[in-house]
Amino acid sequence: MKNCNMAMFFEMRKKLDLYMWLSMVPNGPSARFLVQNVHTMDELRLTGNHLKGSRPLVTFDKSFDEQPHLSLLKEMLKQAYGTPNVHPKSKPFYDHVIGFTYLDGRIWFRNYQVNRI
User: At 59, is the secondary structure helix, strand, or coil?
Assistant: First the structure.
């Protein structure tokens, strides 16, 4: 893979625990997350189809700026889920929002779809 500087890997242990590895290659840092709940778009009865080439609006709550280890994770997640500013294949609009919230010692990930009313 050309010019790849982030890697995301899902690891299943004994068919019970699912871990998500997030790593900045080749020199690190790396983080391992225990995935506790997964809900599919079909399960939630959402259409969830993003337009090809659209970029997400990535948001974080204020607690990611208060602790040093969370600010490091914020930067890693921003680089993993965000789209570079002038990427040649990205569109100039947002059609979904990815939100990260830190609550009760856990990072909550939410995906919202933006629709016109």
Answer: strand
The band of 89, judged by pLDDT with boundaries at 50, 70 and 90, is confident
CA dihedral 83, 87, 92, 96 (to 10 degrees): -20
Read off the pTM. 0.80
What pairs with residue 9 in β-bridges? 21
The three-state secondary structure class of 40 is: coil
Please tell me the distance from the alpha carbon of residue 30 to that of residue 73, in angstroms, as a whole number. Answer: 9
Model pLDDT, residue 15: 84
Query: Amino acid identity of 46?
Result: L
Q: By C-alpha distance, which of 68, 59, 67, 74 is closest to 111? A: 59
Which residues have a Cβ under 8 Å from the Cβ of 69 and sit 6 or more positions away? none
What is the side-by-side strand order in the sheet with 55-60?
Answer: 55-60, 94-103, 106-113
78, 90, 112, 113 from 49: Cα distances, Å = 21, 16, 11, 8
